[in-house]
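If it is no trouble, might I ask you for a protein's amino acid sequence along with its backbone structure tokens?
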Amino acid sequence: MKYLETNGYYTRRERHAGAADSAASFLFGNLRGYCVHFAHAAVHLLRSQGIAARVAVGYAVDNRMRGSGSAVVIMGDRAHAWPEIHVAGLGWITFDIYPQQSD
């Protein structure tokens, strides 16, 4: 996590679209990308060390966006991906990667 946060650069401009494996292009290339790239790279690194890991996807929505009712409007720009690790006795633990550099 620290490696990706220190050396990675968060940008939505880099998509690694032409690569056969976008996660490999990100991890072994310029380390420039967004949440999907960081999550997949983290999972590859964790699994290489024998740690059970997976990528989760969903939406990151601030509860303050909820009005006085129970409905929440979720826009497409709230889509997010993050890594999770499995810890025996605890289950799947969610964490996120926050690169120190970004656009």
Summary: Residues 55 and 83 are 5 Å apart (CA to CA). The helical segments are 2-7, 22-27, 35-48. Strands lie at 9-10, 32-33, 53-59, 79-87, 91-94, 101-102. The chain is about 25% helix and 25% strand.
